Inverse folding.
């Protein structure tokens, strides 16, 4: 029962200090009748019986939540505290507010036990007499040995007699006593009575308690003039009906009947705020000086000190400003010295006018930095002529880069061509303008710098020295950099009007070089990524359309399937028969060319290293890692097998140039979505090294681990690339008949095996492998051109062009985004002559041996 549970905390299950009596069956409390089914304790006195049960009824009522101290003692107090509580209840005639406001002195005793354990053998336990009696001693030893494994002796671990066990030998007890004094004062007063404490009457008397003699010190009203008036104004703003606790009732005064307090929402309590203000004022009273004169003297001294410090602060601030100005000047001088130490390619020499927007581009604007250009020319640090070939259109031959290079003695840097070269170009429909003509190549590609995409165009000499071509700054000449936000597109016809306007001026410049200048030059090729080629030719045939080839009518559907590599393929009969554009491009008007499509180069880097080669590497690695048992790589799961493959690759000589933290994994191979083909997400240079490593690694594997078609596919592609790049390293512009036939056979064998592997694994694996993307069809035209024209595609691969694009980006990052298209050309042109001087010295040295290919290219 509830009453029995409540009485368990009382001594002997009886209310304290009460004699036993017969338990009444019904107890009347405040006019209410309570059934007492339980027997009354014998120690309850008849005079205090009603008070005890009334207190118990009060302690179990909701009103107890307003008296936390009484509730705490009733529920969890000690015996003495409950006796004292019941005695106060009888003395105050059940006045709970008075009991709550009294002082409670509490004391507590705590004990702390510390056990002392020792590590002993069984013999030592017996000698130490762990128990008084012999039987108990062996019983304690047996319990200790059974409860723990024991610690063997390090010198003799096999000896069971030397095994030691932890056993408690003694117990220490520490005693600590703490005393806590807790006081709570509450009362019900109006604001004016509360403020009487400010005049020395005391806070307790204002709350209705007995008056306490105050100290002899001055009151707050005396120390703070006008303080009492301010307090009265504050008291007037406080509602006199503020809800405050009731004051303690005196003995003999009957306590009013308690009414149930309805639950209300929490409101502001002005009484608590009033107490806080009183405490703050009392603290201020203690902090003030003893007399008003002393306070005035202290205040005057403080003001004088503050004024002196203010004057010093003004002087110190002035010195600090001078020091800051000196530091700024020092930084400016240091920056100027650093600029003077920088090489001249970082400075500006000439200006470029806008070629993208209005008809004013047809007139050359005034050079804003002509004076700086004159100083550089006087110091022989740049060309005498204003090299404005990149500031198209060209007004005269003095403004062209090619003419300037020739006039200043750098003709040999551009290279010379043999008769065999022009015969090969004649088969492609290109006519040489003269006996000493220079073949030029035009390159375009996009890149992102400073959160903006730029279309960069540059030209290069196709017959330049191999050593010069290995440096992009010596062999690539920047034309323009067009930001993407000025591009004007027509979505239906895929026409970029901004790019076509620039190419129109470039075409005029090439025609001028062909017919009017002292040196003859001819555009012999256009190269770049697929996006640039489609925009430069206004092509409607892109990878996103059914027709996906610039040179033929190959389609994705069954009409002219681009995956057909047979000699009787239907798309071969449509080669060069139709134009891929609706509106003719600006380059279609170039002179000396029968068809602009015949001079468009298929780039090995974009077609293989960033295309089919990445699909091949990703598919082969997935097949090798997919084998769980008896595969090429060790490991219980795919992650471990990829790590083993990485370790094998990094230990091979083909890993030169790869970072040490390189790691193959599922995402790197493209094992993300089952709806997409796997693809190796490697860089262009890394793809060539991976193909070489796979060719060597698969050659050592058995047919059960790697099928023969898989080995042959990788080997044929690597063999074809080896033939082309070896010829490039030897400086060959054209291939011999044997080299052309060999590369052609290797290439077409690779294409057939690749398509065979795609068909054999289709629908049998979790992920798709050997993606026959449209770049697969470009390789058909590339291998066919080897036999027809014997042009070496590795000679014009775009590795160095991409490197030149990267270096152009370094300059753009140092320029403001709004003027980057102009500033990058100004800085580039200043550094042109030093680079030409370096290239001239390399070209003049005829005694040289063939160097190995660049690190970016496969060996």
């Amino acid at each position: 029962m509830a009453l029995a549970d409540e009485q368990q905390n009382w001594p002997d299950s009886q209310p304290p200090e009460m004699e036993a009596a017969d338990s009444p069956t019904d107890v009347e409390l405040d006019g209410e009748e309570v059934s007492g089914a339980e027997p009354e304790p014998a120690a309850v006195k008849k005079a205090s019986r009603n008070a005890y049960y009334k207190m118990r009824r009060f302690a179990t009522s909701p009103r107890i939540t307003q008296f936390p101290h009484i509730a705490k003692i009733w529920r969890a107090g000690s015996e003495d505290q409950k006796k004292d509580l019941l005695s106060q209840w009888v003395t105050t005639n059940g006045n709970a507010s008075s009991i709550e406001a009294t002082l409670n002195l509490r004391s507590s005793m705590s004990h702390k036990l510390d056990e002392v354990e020792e590590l002993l053998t069984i013999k030592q336990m017996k000698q130490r007499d762990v128990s008084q009696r012999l039987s108990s001693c062996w019983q304690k030893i047996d319990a200790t040995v059974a409860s723990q494994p024991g610690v063997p002796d390090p010198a003799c671990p096999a000896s069971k007699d030397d095994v030691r066990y932890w056993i408690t030998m003694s117990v220490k007890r520490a005693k600590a006593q703490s005393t806590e004094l807790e006081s709570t004062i509450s009362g019900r007063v109006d604001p004016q009575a509360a403020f009487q404490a400010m005049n020395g009457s005391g806070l307790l008397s204002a709350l209705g308690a007995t008056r306490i003699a105050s100290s002899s010190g001055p009151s707050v009203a005396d120390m703070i003039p006008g303080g009492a008036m301010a307090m009265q104004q504050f008291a007037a703003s406080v509602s006199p009906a503020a809800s405050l606790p009731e004051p303690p009732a005196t003995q003999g005064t009957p306590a009013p009947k308690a009414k149930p307090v309805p639950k209300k929402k929490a409101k502001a309590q002005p009484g608590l705020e009033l107490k806080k203000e009183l405490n703050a004022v009392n603290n201020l009273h203690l902090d003030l000086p003893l007399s008003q004169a002393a306070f005035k003297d202290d205040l005057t001294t403080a003001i004088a000190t503050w004024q002196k410090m203010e004057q010093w602060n003004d002087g110190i601030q002035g010195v600090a400003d001078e020091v800051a100005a000196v530091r700024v000047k020092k930084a400016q001088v240091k920056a100027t010295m650093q600029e003077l130490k920088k090489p001249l390619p970082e400075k500006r020499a000439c200006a470029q006018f806008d070629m993208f927007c209005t008809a004013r581009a047809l007139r050359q604007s005034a050079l804003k930095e002509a004076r700086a250009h004159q100083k550089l020319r006087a110091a022989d640090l740049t060309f005498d002529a204003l090299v404005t070939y990149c500031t198209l259109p060209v007004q005269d031959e003095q403004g062209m880069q090619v003419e300037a290079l020739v006039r200043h003695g750098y003709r040999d840097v551009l290279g010379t061509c043999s008769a065999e070269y022009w015969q090969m170009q004649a088969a492609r429909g290109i006519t040489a303008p003269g006996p000493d003509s220079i073949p030029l190549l035009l390159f375009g590609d996009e890149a992102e710098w400073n959160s903006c995409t730029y279309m960069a165009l540059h030209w290069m000499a196709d017959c330049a020295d191999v050593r010069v071509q290995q440096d992009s700054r010596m062999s690539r000449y920047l034309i323009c950099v067009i930001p993407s936000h000025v591009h004007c597109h027509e979505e239906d016809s895929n026409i970029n009007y901004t790019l076509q306007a620039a190419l129109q001026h470039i075409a005029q410049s090439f025609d001028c070089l062909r017919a009017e200048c002292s040196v003859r030059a001819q555009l012999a090729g256009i190269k770049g990524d697929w996006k640039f080629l489609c925009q430069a030719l206004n092509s409607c045939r892109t990878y996103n359309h059914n027709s996906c080839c610039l040179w033929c009518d190959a389609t994705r559907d069954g009409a002219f399937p681009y995956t057909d590599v047979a000699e009787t393929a239907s798309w071969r009969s449509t080669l060069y028969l139709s134009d891929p554009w609706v509106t003719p491009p600006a380059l279609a008007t170039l002179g000396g060319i029968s068809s602009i499509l015949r001079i468009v180069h298929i780039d090995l880097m974009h077609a293989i290293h960033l295309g089919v080669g990445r699909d091949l590497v990703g598919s082969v690695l997935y097949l090798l890692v997919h084998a769980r048992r008896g595969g090429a790589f060790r490991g219980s799961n795919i992650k471990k097998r990829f790590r083993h493959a990485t370790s094998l690759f990094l230990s091979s000589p083909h890993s030169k140039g790869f970072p040490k933290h390189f790691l193959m994994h599922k995402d790197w191979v493209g094992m993300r979505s089952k709806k997409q083909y796997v693809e190796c997400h490697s860089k262009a240079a890394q793809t060539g090294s991976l193909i070489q490593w796979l060719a060597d690694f698969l050659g050592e594997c058995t047919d059960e681990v790697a099928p023969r078609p898989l080995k042959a596919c990788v080997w044929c592609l690597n063999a074809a690339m080896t033939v082309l790049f070896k010829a490039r390293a030897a400086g060959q512009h054209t291939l011999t008949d044997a080299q052309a036939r060999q590369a052609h056979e290797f290439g077409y064998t690779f294409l057939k095996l690749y398509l065979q592997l795609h068909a054999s694994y289709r629908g049998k694996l979790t992920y798709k492998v050997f993606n026959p993307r449209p770049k697969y069809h470009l390789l058909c035209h590339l291998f066919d051109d080897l036999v027809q024209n014997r042009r070496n595609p590795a000679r014009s691969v775009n590795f160095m062009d991409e490197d030149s694009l990267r270096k152009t980006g370094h300059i753009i990052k140092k320029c403001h985004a709004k003027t980057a298209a102009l500033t990058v050309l100004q800085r580039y042109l200043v550094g042109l002559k030093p680079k030409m001087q370096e290239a001239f010295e390399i070209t003049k040295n005829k005694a040289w041996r063939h160097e190995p290919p660049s690190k970016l290219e496969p060996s």
In short: The first strand starts at residue 26 and ends at 29.
